[in-house]
Design goal:
The chain crosses the membrane at residues 27-46, 52-79. This protein is mainly alpha-helical. It has one domain (13-95). Helices cover 68% and strands 0% of the residues. The protein is built from three helices and no strands. It has helices spanning 13-43, 47-80, 87-94. Helix 1 runs antiparallel to helix 2.
């Protein structure tokens, strides 16, 4: 991300953070599902603990939903400005290297 994107003025600064947080949060939410399933089964005799765990799950889901709304808003702003988001921007979100030797085999 050393070079400025050509359409940088049309891409909100906060969009990169929101998209990266949504990506990481979604991965963590799915991974936590494998942890929470047995924990909920073990905690089922204690209703207060079970309710607290469900509240944690719900708040994490709510946070991901708010990130999704923010991401849709940011992408709509870019779309309305009739700007294309460059490939380097997408690669910076998913941490792909930007070197020349990374072209697809079909090129």
């Amino acid at each position: 991300m050393t070079e400025k994107y050509q359409a940088g003025h049309a891409i909100p600064r906060w969009l990169h953070f929101v998209m990266a947080a949504d990506r990481a949060g979604s991965a963590a939410y799915v991974g936590a599902g494998f942890f929470f399933a047995p924990v909920l089964a073990i905690a089922s005799p204690w209703p207060a603990l079970t309710a607290a765990l469900w509240i944690v799950i719900a708040l994490a889901g709510l946070w991901l939903g708010l990130l999704g709304i923010a991401m849709a808003t940011g992408l709509a702003i870019v779309l309305r400005s009739n700007t294309e988001i460059p490939e380097d921007y997408w690669r910076s979100i998913i941490d792909y290297p930007t070197g020349r030797g990374n072209r697809p085999a079909s090129v």
